[in-house]
Amino acid sequence: MRPFFVVLSAFFILIALSGCAKPLMSDLETFVATIKKKPSPPLKELPQFPTEENYQYQAIKNKKPDPFISFEQEVVIKDEDIASDEELPEDCPRPDRYRAKQQLELFPLDALIMVGSLAQGGKIWGLVLDPDGNVHRVEENNYAGKRYGRIISIDENTIQLHELHQDERGCYEEVPAKIVLTVVD
Q1: What does the pLDDT profile of the chain (185 residues) look like in tens digits?
Q2: Burial 53-89, CB ≥16 within 10 A → b, else e
Q3: What H or E segment, with its residue span, contains residue 44?
Q4: Is 27 helix (H, G, I), strand (E, B) or coil?
Q5: Which CATH number applies to 105-180: 2.30.30.830, 3.30.70.100, 3.40.640.10, 1.20.1420.30?
Q6: Is the Cβ–Cβ distance between 123 and 116 less than 8 Å?
Q7: Rounded CA gap, 106 and 164, in Å?
Q8: What is the pTM of this model?
Q9: Which end of the chain has the lower number of beta carbons within 10 A, N or C?
């Protein structure tokens, strides 16, 4: 029985080695050689593209939105705000109308509701609900309300702000305001 296995294994080895032999591919090689000898067709010329002139984008001067500000933070600058700022006397304090407005400045302060606070590593954030039902995390020096309210302090129950109110001359003065923690159903 053993010689049978030796003959059978020799047979399979010969079959496997026959697959390693160089196949007859002379007709294929001839075809490839004739194709390579043919000249390649000329390439089509690329179309001419119009040249664009450079453009310096000036968002504030042209009263257009700044493309480098997040959509969540972008607020349209009103024409009357910029015009009134130029008419103020030099000694009047004024808000920075050219800074990027924040999302909570779209709503009046009395429409915003404090719904909680977060604290970590000695830093505290306030959670504010806007009239659209979105909750925002705020911290000191963020802005809220339509009167340039800047957050000056946050504790567990209150967010303290300084709003800017215009007096009879058109100058601005800081007025304290606050958003108090409210339980929302």
Answers
A1: 677 888 888 888 877 776 666 667 788 889 999 999 999 888 889 888 888 887 666 665 555 666 666 555 545 544 444 445 556 667 777 788 788 899 999 999 999 999 999 999 989 999 999 999 999 999 999 999 999 999 999 999 999 999 988 877 778 888 999 999 988 76
A2: eeeeeebeeeeeeeeeeeeeebeebeeeeeeeeeeee
A3: none
A4: helix
A5: 2.30.30.830
A6: no
A7: 15
A8: 0.52
A9: C
Residue holding tokens 């339980």? 183
Tokens 């053993």 -> residue: 2
